[in-house]
Amino acid sequence: MRNKFIILVLIGLFIASFSIKNEPIFVVPQNWPKPHYDFNKNPLSTDKIELGKALFYDPILSRNDKISCASCHSPYNAFTHVDHALSHGIDDRIGTRNSPALMNLAWHKSFMWDGAINHIDMQALAPMSNALEMDSKIENVVAKLQQSTIYTKLFYQAFGDSMITGEHTLKAISQFMLTLVSANSKYDSVMRKQTEFTSQERKGFELFQQHCGSCHKQPLFTNLQFENNGLPIDKTLNDFGRMNITKDAKDSLLFKVPTLRNIEFSYPYMHDGRFKKLSEVLNHYTSGVQQSKTLSKQLQKKIILTPNEKADIIAFLLTLSDKEFLFNPKFRK
Amino acid sequence: MLSITSYAQSATKISFNPVFGKPVLHLDDSCYTTDSICISNFKCYISAIKLLQNDSLVWEEKNSFHLLDAANEKSLYILLNTHSNLKYNKIKFNIGIDSATNVSGAMGGDLDPTKGMYWTWQSGYINMKLEGKSKLCKTRNNEFQFHLGGYQNADNALQTVLLNVTDNKEIVIAIDLQKIFTVIDLAKHNQIMSPGKEAVLFAEKFSKIFSVQQ
After folding, report:
1. Which CATH architecture describes the domain A39-181?
2. Rounded Cα–Cα distance for residues A178 and A105 (Å)
């Protein structure tokens, strides 16, 4: 009897340690759609993710070894750049757009405010080569990495090959970014019936679904489409968004709908960071929307909200903050 | 019963031969005097290589992506793992990278983005690069730069070439760059750096300068 008990305990311990070791690296949250990313082409592994993380935080990716991805996508702010409306790159050069918060990217079909990048693997090439951002290029980055014994070792562990290639560099960076999943906010707990909204949050949620939910669609809080939400053009930037890529007038002033998850932490807002506070964003939707040929149809009719209703929506938006995501040590250096 | 037909493996060699009217292309400052054109860089992707007998497909290369670089002799030869009984009289291939591959993320070998044939500010492969100088170009240092690419809808610059061959062990294909300058007006067109109508038109003309050398 006693022996049997010990064996059971041992088996139990064995199973427990096994499942901790094999803790799934990527979990599709309950009731979420299937990710867009094809993991068969780049199967996740702990070593590759760790390598990707090292690269994400390493300024070696820039010309002068000073700017890393995290310089503009800080883990302390849902992976965006908080103090700057427009991104701040190498030699203090100012970019032309606000850096987006990075999360749930495995579900995204295109990247950048205008969708210029067609695959997350190819994303890192853009900042590496942009003269205002990291001002280098993948050829030079790979050459620098190849000189580093730490990286040749990490690449060997991850890919079984210490010859560093552009493909492996990019795939590793993707792997790290793909693990940035945020799905554990208060809103998520409410959806899973583990907790409840306050009455203000619930009112805000209803108003949100009515006025905002078609573009900022649950559960990602973006429909991943390009829309014109009526921001008047900034004449100093003349950024026509999606039209820059498609050259189609129908796409003038359309921008990729950003997620609103962790929105409390990803100010300033919009592609050019023109708003610092959520209250300014709500004022835009009620009284700042500019009519134009390409204005999305949901916004063609004026949205009317009382000050209390605006406060309710903001209370709801704050339920999208995901502490587990925001303070996850796994995502930090 | 199972009947197993085994073919002896053999190789068919394709040699690409970039020329400028004359037999060899040189990538240096000595211009071709007649046109005062010098070429400093010529690279292009060849993909989806197929062999045909009349109109039917008899052999196709798997994972068929090759980057030709005039500055790298070795890149100009492609060995096809064919078999000895193969009868064919046509070769077909694409110039550039197809749309599906363009949206498939990071890839290695000749498709590795370190090869300098990938646009960074907007995703997509550069199918062909041709750079050099000519007095006809009223640009900085009289330079011309053609970076042809684009994979979406009307901007798709991928070209298909079909050539008659004899089923020899070696197929020699000349790419006569001089011909391209007889059909474009360098004074007017000397910079193409992004996908669009102009790139597609140029790519069509470019596909016509491939010919089999006997």
Report:
1. Orthogonal Bundle (1.10)
2. 6
| Predicted pLDDT of residue A92 | 80
Average pLDDT, chain A: 92
Q: What is the pLDDT of residue A19?
A: 40
CATH of segment(s) A186-325: 1.10.760.10
Query: ipTM of the predicted structure?
Result: 0.87
Q: Would the CB atoms of B123 and A116 count as touching at under 8 Å? A: yes
DSSP A90: G
In chain A, residues with a C-beta closer than 8 Å to the C-beta of B121 are: 116, 126, 129-130
Ranges of CATH 1.10.760.10 domains, chain A:
39-181, 186-325
CB atoms inside a 10 Å sphere around CB A231: 19
Region for A104 from its dihedrals, namely left if φ exceeds 0, alpha if ψ lies in -120 to 50, beta otherwise = left
Query: Mean pLDDT across the stretch B75-96?
Result: 93
The answer to whether the CB atoms of A125 and B114 lie below 8 A apart is: no
Of A122, A128, A142, the CB nearest to B106: A122
Per residue in A90-132, pLDDT tens? 778 888 899 999 999 999 999 999 999 999 999 999 999 888 8
Instruction: Check B120 against A42: CB less than 8 A apart.
Output: no
d(CA A118, CA A99): 17
